[in-house]
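hiii so um. not sure if this is the right channel but i have a protein structure encoded as tokens and i wanna go backwards to a sequence. like what aa goes where. can anyone help
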């Protein structure tokens, strides 16, 4: 379920944040070359396509992946360079080469369905909208093959996030390989290390301590912006700091045998959150204007509040600020949060594929060593990234890593092997583990702990197929409601606080909101197994 609502919000959370970043990004010296859907790589051809291995003895596995906005990933020339080295390695070690194909996100489900049903050569597909794949019977049962051909990864997943295997299992069949990405809704204060040391600030744990930091910088550093705050992030963070559970931009409370869901304007704390943001802006403690993110990214800002899931979008820029390092502090860790049952991505085997073994072996290969993972996720060492005494550095200035910014790579993410360009790998992995596992619980467990069995729906896997039809009926309404909220955020992100909190609440009113919330509540209670 969180996949649907993430489409409403997750890709717009930092649209405001990154609008000016994208506009100010320098264009790479080379125009990327493009591999179109279904094309076969060749040796450095005029089209810019590459193929490192050309042997009829090798098995070719075809991966169809999502790309946001278009069917062409950014930095495709770097991806081609990565793939040339990848083919050499997998050709030798697995007797397999990998064909990468992309489909524009909004067309993905229909395109993949048509390819599989027409029996085209397609082996692996993005599993983030798994309900649609299940409803259309597009995936292969890999229960035995997963354990057999990816034993190490299966064991790691089972020991670390067993709920993800459960979420991928229907009618006692495992139907996709979940990734090990972190997607818990937690916020952190990202703060310049030199200023922390200068003013002897050891930690920032909550909103009041962060405000004290902002005041210190305002008083003592006249040429430094104390904080850049994305309006969406702050309003979301404020709700979480008050103890609400985040269910993909909808806020929930589970207690005393009751379950309630709200949009942010329906929270009693909405006025306090909006007024706090306005007060901080009026006092000069923060800027909410889109363009002022450049002060942070240029080293002229002291801090921001960032959702941990969005930190990666900033890393490439922050790592390129001369002589500036950052520290990160998890905020409001005393408040419990939901840890998703399901993964934010993964790979399913197409029902008509004859190469399930090869695809699963490839997934295991990527996860089997840091070297393999780095190649597939970050590119060729010393060409796309460097390691200097363990310090990871992306070559170039784009906010996306040369290779790992491409859509499709998230289906293979494993937080235990993630590289950060602003923190050591050990520090970043421990941070992700803290944010994902400390004082968190799956919705399934929270619901069963607090709600009566009569309130909870069936776990019958056959019912899950009905969810796909229900989601389609409500999708346009959800986008409409989300559109009103983003209009509200866009006004704030211009620094416009001329409206009162009550005027904004009137602006956010929708005559079908109760219907939408009622639907979401029913879905979460009926299908908590997969959310």
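sure thing!! here u go:
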């Amino acid at each position: 379920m969180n996949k649907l609502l993430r489409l409403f919000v997750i890709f717009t959370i930092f649209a405001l944040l990154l609008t000016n970043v994208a506009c100010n990004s320098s264009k790479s010296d080379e125009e990327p070359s493009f591999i179109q859907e279904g094309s076969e790589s060749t040796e450095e051809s005029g089209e810019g396509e590459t193929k490192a291995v050309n042997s009829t003895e090798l098995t070719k596995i075809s991966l169809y992946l999502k790309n946001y906005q278009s069917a062409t990933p950014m930095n495709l020339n770097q991806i081609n360079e990565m793939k040339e080295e990848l083919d050499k390695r997998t050709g030798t070690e697995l007797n397999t080469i990998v064909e990468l194909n992309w489909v524009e996100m909004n067309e993905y489900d229909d395109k993949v369905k048509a390819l599989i049903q027409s029996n085209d050569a397609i082996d692996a597909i993005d599993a983030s909208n798994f309900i649609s794949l299940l409803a259309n019977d597009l995936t292969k049962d890999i229960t035995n093959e997963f354990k057999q051909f990816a034993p190490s990864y299966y064991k790691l997943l089972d020991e670390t996030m067993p709920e993800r295997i459960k979420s991928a299992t229907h009618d006692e069949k495992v139907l996709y390989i979940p990734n090990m990405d972190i997607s818990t809704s937690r916020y952190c204060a990202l703060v310049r290390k030199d200023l922390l040391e200068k003013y002897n600030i050891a930690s920032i744990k909550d909103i009041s301590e962060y405000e004290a930091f902002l005041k210190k910088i305002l008083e003592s550093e006249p040429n430094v912006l104390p904080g850049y705050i994305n309006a969406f992030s702050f309003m979301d963070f404020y709700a979480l700091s008050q103890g609400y559970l985040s269910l993909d931009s909808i806020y929930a409370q589970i207690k005393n045998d009751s379950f309630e869901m709200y949009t942010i304007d329906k929270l009693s704390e909405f006025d306090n959150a909006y007024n706090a943001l306005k007060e901080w802006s009026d006092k000069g403690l923060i800027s909410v204007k889109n363009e002022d993110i450049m002060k942070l990214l240029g080293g002229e800002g002291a801090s921001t509040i960032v959702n941990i899931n969005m930190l990666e979008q900033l890393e490439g820029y922050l790592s390129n600020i001369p002589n500036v390092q950052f520290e990160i502090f998890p905020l409001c860790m005393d408040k419990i949060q939901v840890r998703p049952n399901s993964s934010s991505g993964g790979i399913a085997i197409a029902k008509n594929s004859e190469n399930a073994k090869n695809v699963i072996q490839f997934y295991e290969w990527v996860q089997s060593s840091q070297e393999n993972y780095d190649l597939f996720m970050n590119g060729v060492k010393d060409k796309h990234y460097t390691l200097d005494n363990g310090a990871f550095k992306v070559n170039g200035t784009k906010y996306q890593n040369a290779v790992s910014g491409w859509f499709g790579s998230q289906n293979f993410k494993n937080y235990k092997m993630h590289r950060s360009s602003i923190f050591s790998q050990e520090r970043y992995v421990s941070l992700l583990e803290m944010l994902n596992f400390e004082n968190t619980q799956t919705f399934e467990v929270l619901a069963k702990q607090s709600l009566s069995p009569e309130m909870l729906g069936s776990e019958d896997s056959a019912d899950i197929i009905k969810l796909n039809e229900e989601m389609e009926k409500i999708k346009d309404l959800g986008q409409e409601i989300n559109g009103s909220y983003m209009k509200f955020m866009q006004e704030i992100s211009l620094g416009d606080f001329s409206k009162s909190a009550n005027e904004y609440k009137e602006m956010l009113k929708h005559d079908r909101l109760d219907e939408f919330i009622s639907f979401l509540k029913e879905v979460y209670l009926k299908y908590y197994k997969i959310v």
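oh and The first strand starts at residue 59 and ends at 67.
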